[in-house]
């Protein structure tokens, strides 16, 4: 289904009757409404970043709801799409933190390939209707994924931006891991603790201290 070790790690989920019933609900949404990301990209975050290779988790809420934006990676947009304000602020903090200049493209696939799991808590959304799938049931799966990552014996950095993401901290109990939390990068809250929080250098310093190759955040 995914094409890497998530097939094994989540085997009991993929094979469960409950998951198949849930995916039928999702398929009905896609058949009835215009939904994002494309159906084949719903699990793109897992496809791009295996369980074994996950070094950093950046948790988002739900996909962008504009046409052509979302492609299954939190905060990322497809090439050629105008950068959303939150992503502009992420790139601004990245530059202030590490001196890395990104901005022409908002496609974060290269981060995913570096070991950054760009996971949304809710994996789908109706067009032009933010949070429209928040009660569909995705959190049962994505909370389970966070709990499984918490079980890893290899240290992982969990980056939690905003109150919604910070609520997931209760699932991260393994002392081997690092939690980095701050305000959300949206224009409404970035100045209240996101700017100046230096999440990228903190994450890489932690990885380096645990003899794990640092992430190259240059797109």
Q: How many strands, what sense, and barrel or not for the largest sheet?
A: 4 strands, parallel
> How far apart are the termini?
28 Å
What is the helix/strand order? HHHEHEHHEEHEHEH
Low-confidence spans: pLDDT under 50, at least 5 residues? none
Task: Please give the order of strands in the largest beta sheet.
Answer: 3-2-5-6
- The portion of residues forming beta strands comes to 5-15%
Structural class: alpha/beta
Shape annotation: globular
What's the pLDDT, averaged over the residues? 97
The total strand number stands at 6
- The helix content, as a percent range, equals 25-40%
Radius of gyration: 17 Å
Count of helix runs: 9
Features:
alpha/beta, globular, 4-stranded parallel β-sheet, two-stranded antiparallel sheet, 219 residues
What does this structure look like?
The structure is a single chain. The chain is an alpha/beta fold. Helix content is 35%, strand content 11%. It has 9 helices and 6 strands, in the order H-H-H-E-H-E-H-H-E-E-H-E-H-E-H. It has helices at residues 6-9, 11-14, 17-32, 44-48, 85-98, 109-113, 138-150, 162-166, 199-209; strands at residues 35-36, 56-60, 116-120, 125-126, 157-161, 178-182. The strands form 2 sheets. A 4-stranded parallel beta sheet has the order 3-2-5-6. Helix 8 (162-166) links the parallel strand 5 and strand 6. It is globular, with a radius of gyration of 17 Å. The two termini are 28 Å apart. The mean pLDDT is 97.
